[in-house]
Amino acid sequence: QSALTQPASVSGSPGQSITISCTGTSNDVGGYKYVSWYQQYPGKAPKLLISDVTNRPSGISRRFSGSKSGNTASLTISGLQTEDEAHYYCSSHTASDTLLFGGGTKLTVL
Amino acid sequence: QVQLVQSGAEVKKPGSSVKVSCKASGVRFRSSAFSWVRQAPGQGLEWMGDIIPVLRTENYAQRFQGRFTISIDESTNSVYMELSSLRSEDTAIYYCARSPMIVVVSHFDHWGQGTQVTVSS
Q1: What would the pLDDT profile of B7-22 be if each residue is shown by its tens digit?
Q2: Distances in Å between the alpha carbon of A22 and those of A53, A55, A66, A107, B49?
Q3: From the CB of residue B20, how many other CB atoms can be counted at a distance below 10 Å?
């Protein structure tokens, strides 16, 4: 299975909002509510930001939000901060009862 | 607090096997599913497979079937992964990750610190 499609990089200025897309098929993103987003700093383990498309775990800033339309899920970060500069990965449950990750997006805060 | 503590870095020869451990604490072991996720240098995350302790069932990504095994030791709340027939492309950081969902492989709310596995002759 090919990885879910994410833009390789996005950028924004402090205070702005950015959106990272995650495109799959009806056999993964489009077919299930089990889409998640992770943040990863260099040399660190990933951290869960969003589960089940829109659910934000306790302790995660309200600046992070998730949505889905058809086969594309999105992560929006509002009020961009310099500490948000990191890699972001989406994941989705699949019809094969496996998990697929996106290729990852590097966020640069200018 | 929840902790997943993995075993240390490994250097292996091509064709050999590696076994990595992940000890869970502060979490209800039998109410969890545990996955292994790897990350090759400069690359993204790749799900390899998972195990559900309460069901004693394992599920593997197709590309790893046949040379990848996940096991558990409930007496020590530990999860293990073993990868055989190692090749240079298996050089990566291997993460243990816990999911609160046992019905479907979903999201991971806790991760181990990662174990570097290097395959080199």
Answers
A1: 999 999 999 999 999 9
A2: 11, 16, 11, 14, 22
A3: 23
pLDDT band at A1 (very low <50, low <70, confident <90, very high): confident
pLDDT confidence of residue B51: 96
Residues of chain B contacting residue A98, judged by C-beta atoms under 8 Å apart: 47, 59, 61-62, 105
Q: What percent of chain A shows pLDDT beyond 70?
A: 100
Distance CA B34, CA B36 (A): 7
- Is B45 in contact with A99 (Cβ distance < 8 A)? no
Taking an 8 Å Cβ-Cβ cutoff, which residues of chain B contact chain A? 35, 37, 44-47, 50, 59, 61-62, 95, 97, 101, 104-109, 111-114
Burial class (CB in 10 A: 0-12, 13-18, 19+), B98: buried
Structure-block tokens of residue B87: 């090749």
Task: Report yes or no: B87 and B78 within 8 Å, Cβ to Cβ.
Answer: no
Please name the residue that has the structure tokens 């993103």: A29
CB distance A7 to A21 below 8 Å: yes
Strands B10-12 and B115-119, how do they pair? parallel
Our separate counts of H helices and E strands in chain B read 0, 11
Cβ neighbours of B114 in A, within 8 Å: 45
Question: Which residues does B13 contact at the CB level (< 8 Å), separation at least 6?
Answer: B86, B119, B120, B121
Nearest Cα to A32, choosing from A47, A60, A51?
A: A51
